[in-house]
Write a structure and sequence with these properties.
Length: 111
């Protein structure tokens, strides 16, 4: 667990770029398909586990806006603080950080 955490701390700022390179951008299609299949509704509460950079959370938020959900709120949980920092910065740059709660935590310990 410590070794994995260390690796993600080192790659946090380039994580999404690495995904683009390794998947030839297909990971973006997968994430779009995931959100489309999940089809969150206005009453849903969304939790993005291991979602540090916010990539899926931002897609979920956009979906909620597209269906005119009144309470657009997401919780993004990740064990790695550096990944969460990247996500928070991205959310601030997009002006959507007020719709996101960022939680540092281990998914194996969620109850």
């Amino acid at each position: 667990e410590d070794k994995v955490k260390e690796v993600f701390e080192k790659v946090a700022t380039s994580y999404d770029t690495m995904n683009d390179a390794m998947s030839l951008g297909i990971h973006r299609v997968w994430k779009d398909c995931f959100v489309k299949r999940a089809a969150p509704q206005p009453t849903y509460k969304c939790l993005d586990v291991a979602g540090g950079t916010g990539d899926i959370a931002f897609r979920l938020l956009q979906h909620m806006r597209n269906i005119n959900a009144e309470h657009e709120r997401l919780v993004i949980c990740d064990i790695n603080r550096e990944m969460l920092k990247v996500g928070q910065t991205r959310a601030e740059e997009r002006g959507i950080n007020t719709h996101c709660d960022w939680v540092e935590g281990n998914a194996e310990q969620l109850e």
